[in-house]
Write a structure and sequence with these properties.
The chain is α/β, with parallel strands linked by helices. Helices cover about 30% and strands about 25% of the residues.
Amino acid sequence: MEATRLYQWMKKLGFTSYEAFYQASIDDIAWFWEEAEKELGIPWFKQYEKALSLEKGIQWPVWFQNGALNAMDAAVSRWANDPTMREKQALLWEGEDGQIRQYSFAEMQAEVERAAGGLKKLGLKKGEIVAIYMPMLPETVIAMMAISKLGAIYSPVFSGYGAEAVATRLQASEAKMLLTADGFYRRGKPIDLRREAEKAVALSPTVEQVIVVGRLEQQLALNHHAINWNELIQAEPMIKTEEMESDETLMLIYTSGTTGRPKGAVHTHSGFPIKAAFDAGIGMDVKKEDVMFWYTDMGWMMGPFLVYGGLINGATILLYEGTPDYPHPDRLWKIVSDHGVTHLGVSPTLIRGMMKHGEKWAKPYDLSTLRVIGSTGEPWNPEPWRWLFEKIGHGKIPIFNYSGGTEISGGILGNVLIRPIGPITFNSPLPGMAADVYSQDGKSISNEVGELVLTKPWVGMTNGFWKEHERFHETYWSRWPNTWVHGDWVIKDEEGFWTITGRSDDTLNIAGKRVGPAEVESVLVSDHSVVEAGTIGVPDPIKGEVAICFVVLAPDISESAALKERLLNLVAEKLGKALKPKDIFFVQDLPKTRNAKVMRRAIKAAYLHQSAGDLSSLENPEAVEEIQALRKSCS
């Protein structure tokens, strides 16, 4: 514990008690985050005048006021220009087919400069948006850095999305360019990503140019407005990095909610990178020359978290293209052993999947370099947590349970490495995060389930939703004055351990991938046979949660197994196979309020035979009875 960066930093600041340090971190957040950025060694083009300004209110904090920096410079150039670090490994990539590529910090900077030169030649300007619909390739990270270097904005999109889900995000961001790949490998099979990208672009009038990275080397024909990545990087390198004001936009990440369109979380050059680097470096103890590997996708928050959390701390980031159990269930453990991984990031779903194969697949491999296992995406069940801790880590490797979100830029709750850690729980809010649990009437509570809230802002807090300020306020700030309501049900016990019991809204969390029920329903209703659709999430032993859909058919359509299969495949095609519902049920009607709003809470309670609470606003209680009877007949 005393060897951790957190303990050493606390000691330097004059603290020996974590509890006293944490309290100081939330009592004076301006002091705390100023000390945090200094400890991380963030390089500034222009030093800020003030760590925090709340002139616009708690909902719109301005961090590091009037400072200038660039996230690319903080992640890459600072090390590439350091004689002791420039030849150290920055990025390591392994393809599912066994290919390996690696880049030192100096090599990575050169690649970023070439890519930035190519993008500049194409006419990309400061403030314009490039969507990145890419698998986990080196070019994905190089492009992120090159776009940032120019002062433009990137928006990563999950590589498993189908064309329609991609198009929704392209339209919302009004992206000027799309960066994609011809494909990637998944369980040994080539996946044609370019085809989905072209369909999405056809639905997105703002996209002027498409850039394609050739991963599959199949010389796939490019359409008339597509540019080959290898040609792009032949341009004259761009050496000078754009100096960005601390609150200028770096990245948009679209995250799904329970109603309507995905939300575009706005992240700044001094926000997401510093929060991610702090949580990884000070929280998870990532140090220079460590190897950090989080099994994720760049379209999910943990992808950019891996990039900035690793690189800003001078560590190597490891990207893996494929599935963790292909061609055999030992693949994940082999990667850790082959590359000397020190920090491994997983999800409970991934571990549940590995657990069924048994620990015998890990035994042949030397996992001695592993110091911390990070876990995020969803709540744990006790059995897989214990299996990972005892059978894989042999009771010696701490599991850093980590929960926050896209709008947080990292974590609210974690397992700090200088306090005891318990199964499936969190041992503290992270330093600088003023977390609490509120009852329904807005009072702080312990030992009972309540709403997870934050009472003060933090570095990395999303700077609103892209072009939707009112929606941002309504989503997080409208329930109690000056209080961020996160949307998780949690319980905090008298020993200081926190447990997340579920989402307090309807957002589905399928194997760590969040999707709004409205997105699934929209796809189903787009089919001529469907009049209405309702989607809920229910517990699943492997994925944690799966989607179950309820469909009202058009009067002239008869239900059939073939129709059900077609609708299931339609969702998989439009949104991605990972989000395919587990089942679809045909019903006469959906439970609705008098103003015609579908009550998903009532659907879920009926399906799971649980109490739905007050249903007095229901217009058609017989719809609930139908779902209850339907579930009984399937049991």
